[in-house]
Amino acid sequence: MRRSFLWRNRVLLTSGALLIVSLHLISTGVHPGDLAARPESAFLEIISPIDAAFTRFSDGASSIVNDYLNLVHVREENAHLRNELARVKGDRARLVELEVENRHLGEMLELKDVLGANAVATNVIGSDATGLSRTLILASGSSDGLRPGMAVLANQGVVGKIIAISPHASRVLLIDDHNSALDGFDQRSRARGIVAGLVDDGLILKYADRSQDIRVGDSIVTSGLDGIFPRGLLVGTIKSVHRGGPGLFLGVRIEPAVDFRELEQVLIVTQPPPHLDDGAKD
Predict the structure, then answer these.
(1) Which residues face 267 on adjacent strands?
(2) Is 254 helix (H, G, I), strand (E, B) or coil?
(3) pLDDT, tens only, 94-127
(4) I need a labelling partner for 85 at 20 to 30 A (CA). Which of 1, 100, 178, 234 fits?
(5) This prediction's pTM
C-alpha cells in the first residue's frame, strides 16, 4: 500500500525533493564546477522556459491593456472630432444661408428703389396644400400695413396679389391661378391683352387680336391699367403662338418670369400705382 502511494506520487515527490535541494544549494552557496551545482543547473533548465513563458504572457497582457486604453482614448478623440466637424458644418450652413438671405434682401431693396413706391419685404412661409388654388402664405399682415388687393413682386417679376389677410399673415393669389387676371402688353410690339391662369396650370394672354404682331420670345409686361401692378413689370415671355382655328383671338401661352415654387422672399407694394388711362399706356 505504501509502495503504491509512493509510486503514484513519484513525480510530485521527486520535484519537491529537487526543489528542497536547490534551495539548500542556493542558500549555502555553490562554486562553478562543483558537482553539487549540477542539480541546480538541471532545475534552472527546467524552470527557465516556464519563467520566460510567464514573462511573455505578462508582457502580452500588459500590451493588450495598453492597446485597449489607447483604443478607448482614440474613440473618444474621434467622437470629439466628429462633434466638432458637425458644429463647424452647421455654422458654415448658417453663414451661407445668412449670406443668401442678405443678398435677397439687398435685391428686394434695389427693386423697391427702382419702383419708387412704398413697399414691404417679407418671407414666404407656406403655399396652398389642397391643389384647388395656387396661393402662397406670407409672414406679414395687417399689422405691417398690408391689405387685400396689393401687388406682390419678386426680383424676377410679378408674383400675384393679396386676397386675404390677418394681423400677422396674408394669402397671395398667384398670377397662374385660374381666378387671376392682370392687364399686360407685348413689350416689343405693344400688343395688349389680359394675362390669366389656366385650371390645368399655365399662363396665357387672352384677347390678343389675330392681327397683332406677337412672337415667341417676346416679353409680356404689366400695363399699369388694372390699378394694382405698377407699369413695366415683367410677367413672362411668350413660349407659343397659335393662329389657327376659329375665333377672333390668338392662342398665346406665356412662360412666367418667376418660379413660384422657389420663392422665399417677396415685395408687397403698399402704394397703388398712379392712374393711367388708355391714351397714356404706350
Answers:
(1) 121, 153
(2) strand
(3) 555 555 555 655 666 666 666 767 888 899 999 8
(4) 100
(5) 0.62
